[in-house]
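I am writing to request your help with a piece of structural work I have in hand. Here, with my thanks, is the record as I have it:
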Amino acid sequence: MSLHKSASFSTPRLVEASAVIEFTFGSEVCRAISEALKPEVMLSSERFVKTAVEVDGESLKLKLRATDLADLRAGVNSYFNLVKASSETLSSQL
C-alpha cells in the first residue's frame, strides 16, 4: 500500500482589513444604540473582528478591523443588522 503525499501549503499571510460604517440618527438614538452594542463590542476582543464604537452628536461610527476579509465582511454584516434592528426598535418605541 502506498501513501499519498499531500501537497504542502504555506500558511496564509495575515493581512489587515478594516471598515468604517457611519450612521446618522438623532443624538438620543445614537447614544441608545451605542449602549446596546457595548456587550457585543466587549466580546469582539475574543472574536476575529475588533470593533470600536464612537458617538459624535447625531453620528454613530463603527470601526471594524480583522486579519481576514471574510471575517471583516461577516462582522460588517452582523453589526449593520444589529444597528438596523436597534434603530427600528427605538423608532417603534417613540
User: Anything to note?
Assistant: The radius of gyration is 19 Å. Residues 17-93 form a domain with the TATA-Binding Protein fold (CATH 3.30.310.50). The beta strands are 17-24, 49-56, 59-66. The chain has two helices and three strands.
